[in-house]
Amino acid sequence: MMAAAIGGFLSVAAGAFAAHGIKDPQAADWMRTGALYGFVHCLATFACAQFMSLGASRARLAPAFFLPGVVIFSGTLYAMALGAPHWFGAITPIGGVLFLIGWAVLAWSALEIDRPRP
Radius of gyration of the chain from Cα atoms? Predict the structure, then answer.
């Protein structure tokens, strides 16, 4: 939960920096995209706790994909916006794949919620 909270904080900061501190339109777009995806997946991590409280114990696995996805996806976009080489963009999709796996795991965990309890 702490990692998700810190990620949410950093996402808001990156979005604000994109809006007010970056003049290059491409760099600002990378920052905004990184901030949006980072924020959504930090919130998704909090949603996992709600799933778990409803009986979906497998939801504890999804943050293991969401949070590294934020680091890789958003981190590479932030890095490029701040001047890193554009080949970092080749790494970005790895974070996207981690996001997709996390959502699949969360959907799989939802099956536990709908299952009747003895």
Answer: 16
